[in-house]
Amino acid sequence: MTTDAAAIGGMGHSVKRKEDARFLRGKGRYIDDIKLPGMLYMDIVRSPYAHANIKSIDASKALALPGVLAVITGKDLDAAGLAWMPTLMSDKQMVLPVDRVVYQAQEVAAVVATERYIAADGVALVEVDYEPLPPVIDPFKALEPDAPLVRPDREAQTNHIWHWESGDKARTDQLFNEAEVTVKEHIYLPRIHVSSIETCGCVASFDKVSGKLTVYMTTQAPHAIRTVYSLVTGIQEHKIRIVSPDIGGGFGGKVPVYPGYVIASVASIQTGLPVKWIEDRSENLQADSFARDYHITAELAAKNDGTMQALRVKTLADHGAFDAAANPSKFPAGLFSIITGSYRLDAAHVEVDGVYTNKPSGGVAYRCSFRVTEAVHTIERMVDTLAQKLQRDPAAVRMQNFIQPDAFPYKSATGWEYDSGNYPAALQKAMEKIDYAGLRREQAEKRARGELMGIGISTFTEIVGAGPSHTFDILGIKMFDSCEIRVHPTGSAIVRIGVQTQGQGHETTFAQIVAEELGLPVENITVEHGDTDTAPYGLGTYASRSTPTAGAATAVAARKIRDKAKKLAGHLLEVSPDDVEWVDYHFQVKGVPGRSVTMKDIAFAAYTNFPPDLEAGLEAVDYYDPPNLTFPFGAYICVVDIDRGTGMVKIRRFVAVDDCGNIINPMIVDGQIHGGLTMGMAPALFEAITYDENGNMQQSNFMDYLLPTAMETPVWETDKTTTPSPHHPFGAKGVGESATVGAPPAIANAVVDALSHLGVTHLDIPITPWKVYQILQEHGAAES
Amino acid sequence: MSSPSSNAASVSTSASTTTIHLTVNGRTRTLSVEPRRTLLDALREDLHLTGAKPGCNMGQCGACTVLLDGEAVYSCLALAIECQHQAITTIEGLAHDDQLDPVQQAFIDHDALQCGFCTPGQVLALKSLLLRDPHPDDDAIERAMAGNLCRCGAYPKILAAARSLAGRAS
């Protein structure tokens, strides 16, 4: 018997997505598509000030408006003990303020009404009397002795939150003292926003009879939210159901619990009716969790021959008014210590200090594993800075300093054990694909003519798949993930997973994992997720962890089923299970291809004809605790041309060679990399959130906060190498964020390269036309 | 929580409404709407056609795109009363029975979507272009699609789908 592998649709097949059929017909069910009988609408009054005392709130005019049912304030929540909620980082944040606002657009009160438009009218009628206070906007000034306190509620009367460090300070300092050459740069990675096209929202529905609270929510981590809800409200966890429906993009912004969720839940409990809250675009940009905002000072020590020796990094992290970053609990600066990158270093020392300012809280990912983009951008810029100082080619300096393929597993200078990698092969492939030598010749010719062309390289290493339970937890919950598989009697199956898709195509890829392991056609496998009443407990989808954790759990659960199936196969084939082997998606008697049974035959037998020593049924569950993280990597090369008249940077070519280990679905991986590259280009060239001295946020819509469109997106030339993870059940590493992490330094390095002959050694992102034009003007290189 | 008078739950809006007739996906629909109600809300809230998505409610993202007499418009920027007697096509009206429109099929063939939220708008923006120009060049495609944001970054595959429909290999 032979099986058509394409009909099975297992590992490595570009199976079309199961999700597409509903999305293309407008039948996706996103949060704002949910409408429950009797549903009320909630809208939020927000602060115009970054820092102010609330002297009074007068809701009488709003309450007089027909259709307005209630106005909820901080004092109402305080009476119920819900004015504050815990963050993931051992801090607390306001749900609604009792007497003081600490950032612009902070929630101040909520209006509940019978119609969405009436709720908005009600918001306009709530009168709040503020007494403005001096805000703290600059994180460096926040640490000065006379700075106003952002958080007088804390025991420590300072704006300093925490100090974190990693690596060997003494050894690093020693290497710097003895170094033949050092380079130093100040690198600011600005505050940015994930800006998923679907904003955040929820529908909270409390059933007064059963006492059960159901919350439909745009969340990337429904189970963790259920537990947090239970701990905060005291409602027993079996009386809470979180349902994450289709999600219109997550990227990290839908990990936190936002105040709106809690207020809507309170409103539903109070009214006994479902309450919908959907934020608008400006609320989303102004108040939801931000990403990055790292002020980095980096130094690299090396020998004159280019051998890198040590890295020293000090960072000020602007966390806004609450430390509400979404990191594993033991990692206040995330996985920033991956900053030694793809390179052999004798020592490294990395420090981060967290600071409060009067800005929205956050520190979530922007489509990357915890603070990995910040780390990768720093090391990739510093390698180029070193190459520039030594007047060496940046590709050659990288090749010279790469961790070599035979050095894995490799212990980094900050203590991570890299699972596998082949960095020289990836860079070599990228250089050949783009004709690196030819580009350098072209650049020299153009430079001689006064034209500005740059070539930028990024050879990044990621750290994803959090994570092993000995190190990784969120509020004490270990970061395992899960899968439950039930094979039905007629040979189809349902798979439930603890992670939650937001466009990654889990309904397809997780079915492919099961198809591969069990030999059942992918079309006969349904994948469900996102409903805490039915899915097994998991920590959710972010940090490229789904395939490394729940993907692994899925393979292991399927293998448990296959172990039982083997016994059933022996029973059906009337031989000992020891005499049965799994070949080409079916079981056969060893060496006798003619005597075989399919998984479909076995599934039927599991319910109709099982031996006395086996229980009925064919199902399994697995909670997978990964032994290590995974370390995807890649080599990107970007070519830019700069318009001397406008300062406009145009990406002419971009070659991306990615290595994410073994691939489940090449088509989906290609799409993930396209998307990651576009989201990597965005902060490199367009996106930043800034504040004026009063704390007014300056990009509250898409005319000011510039997302790339089809016009700006270049042709991405993708390729791959394959270095399987040695510890993952099917050798995968995760891919959703590699390109977001790897692309920004490739672009920044290309622009600096184009301007290096003018003496430019660094440019902070976003590299806007105005920024470039000013430099050209300074150096007399602008075209009039 | 403060509450108004006890019978508040039964109070309905007293704002003045206007009766309008729209032809939505080939069917005449009569609605009574406030003058300020957007076409997007009329479609989603009153007619339960939730395929058009609210992404920004200020004409900046394109997720709410529908066809108004064949032209792609942001339904969040149109008032429902402005569309009196006009023909509106939403994503729900594009497929006929089980037969997908060629634009929808091309999106599947080229993997031109990820989270799916912007997809109805993308499909209708491209449909509108192809209705007025069956063989657009790349520049025309990019201009037609530039008003529809896709944060998942599926643009290269959306353009590939468009090129295939324009009769060119991607």
Give the gist of this structure:
The complex is a heterodimer of chains A (784) and B (170). Chain A is an alpha+beta fold. Chain A folds into 3 domains: 5-27 and 481-624, Aldehyde Oxidoreductase, domain 4 (2-Layer Sandwich), CATH 3.30.365; 34-133 and 198-248 and 255-287, Aldehyde oxidase/xanthine dehydrogenase, a/b hammerhead (Aldehyde Oxidoreductase, domain 3, Alpha-Beta Complex), CATH 3.90.1170.50; 372-411 and 420-466 and 629-778, Aldehyde Oxidoreductase, domain 4, CATH 3.30.365.
Beta-strand segment tally of chain A: 33
Strand content of chain A: 25-35%
Kindly provide the name of the CATH class of the largest domain in chain A: Alpha Beta
Please state the average pLDDT score of chain B.
Answer: 92
CATH H-level homologous superfamily name of the largest domain in chain A: Aldehyde oxidase/xanthine dehydrogenase, molybdopterin binding domain
Our measurement of the CA-to-CA distance between the termini of chain B, rounded to an integer number of angstroms, reads 59 Å
Give a quick account of the main beta sheet of chain A: strands, pairing sense, barrel closure.
Answer: 7 strands, mixed
Biggest interface, and residues per chain?
A-B, 77 and 66 residues
CATH topology of the largest domain in chain B: Ubiquitin-like (UB roll)
